Predict the 3D structure of the following.
Amino acid sequence: MQNEQVIARIRQRLTEKGVIKGNEIATQGYLRTGVNVQTATALNSLSFPILTNQGTIRATERRLDVTDMFTVTHWAMYLVKAGGNAAGGGVVATDTELSQARNNTYPNPYVFATAAPGLPTFLTNNGATALLPVTAESQNMYSLYNGFMSVTVDREVIIDSYDCMRFLRVPIEQQQQATAAAAIAPAAGTIAMAAGHTYDAWEGANFGFSDVDPNFTLNGIGQNNIVLTLPAPVSLAGGLSTNFVFLTMRGIRWQNASKLNA
């Protein structure tokens, strides 16, 4: 469906419900909000800030202006590691490091490697050395995909439980995946890491995105609660680096349309 048709369909529905007047300027856009999960305690849930007046805005974030409304049609959850060895600095991620950090669509054990970016452990089995694609950090990060998202706008529950497994994308070409048989030589007990892919593949412009159905509209001066609930308390922190969970939402920005619906 073309953007004009999508805008027209959503405009009609929101006008009929009295959410907007119907003559607002509509533009295609996106929001991006993140949560720093580098905490000393285990986390039960993550609450994503939506508005420009909610705390400090990070370099890669794009929050909703209080004067506007935004209808979300698609969204994606990305795991981000920055700071420390990830970009040659301290543990705390700077704006520069965040702007250079990659969006991960799954907890790659080479990225989320317990003590800053590094290599996962190795497994020796019957004299052959092979990769064991597990680290404590990547396992903990995977728990995000066993959780669920909920959306409440102005005390109205729009989405009760959206399973986060819909965000998981494991590309065919993965970081450090061997590109030739010669890269793995079990007889010699060695694995040539330099022969692997430098980064994970990025498989298209919509990689990582899922449809939002029903669509929901965020209110610039309303109460917007987007919460990810984890199945059990877990530490999502990285060693010598900072881990983030970012939510990117695509959709329609309604300029100067915000109002209090409560």
The mean pLDDT is 81.
